[in-house]
Specification:
Layout: H1 6-16, H2 20-29, H3 34-52, E1 59-67, E2 72-80, H4 83-86, H5 89-103, H6 118-129, H7 139-156, E3 163-164, E4 167-171, H8 172-183, E5 188-196, H9 208-216
Antiparallel strand pairs: 1-2, 2-5, 3-4
Helix pairs in contact: 1-2, 1-3, 2-3, 3-8, 5-8, 6-7
Length: 244
Amino acid sequence: MAAISAKDVKELRDKTGAGMMDCKKALQENDGDQEKAIAYLRKKGLSQAGKKSGRVTAEGLVDSYIHFGGQIGVLVEVNCETDFVARNEAFKELVQDIAKQIAACPNVQYVDTDEIPQDFVEKEKAVAMGSDALKGKPDNIKEKIVQGKLDKTLKELCLLHQPYIKDQSITVQELLQQAISKLGENMKVRRFTRFVLGEGIDKVESNLAEEVAAQTKPKVEEKPAEEKPAAKKATSKKKKGKKK
């Protein structure tokens, strides 16, 4: 068995957020290999999270995140079991990270696939079944292809199935499960709302290039109308006769 140093344990803890003893055990079980230890802790987290999934979550936090100079805003509610965990800094950080995740995912509309209306699911399935690429294929093959495409489409709409913005190797669901393992309580993202400035308002479309050109074009000053010269008065000159 490889010798496990305190530095190795700390490095693994910084990567995973797991407890010191869990990190030490994970490294011991995997001969000091950091990547294998991470996978070990992830599997352990999933197992522990599964045991807690039936517990009631009536506490938690409602948090907000404003992004991009006030152009995007998010409200999210994440629940836990006790007020004690709700006040924990690690839980608060988790809720804020989830709010940032929502801000970064413009296509996400639901927490998980079980929230998607059935009529939408049926419509998407009908569209997929009508694809030209399926023509001539046996019905059982069609069904498998369509179901695979449908699952992918539905997951793209759901928060829990998105790659976590700070670690693309895990999903938001796995992030939540790691937090459950770390803090020892069941947690759920209950609901969220994403606001985009001006969304849904009909805006007057304009040609930006033309507007800029009009603003930068030098103005031609109108010249005042020239005054006509006054008519000269006719003067009659009398010819003086020569004196004889």
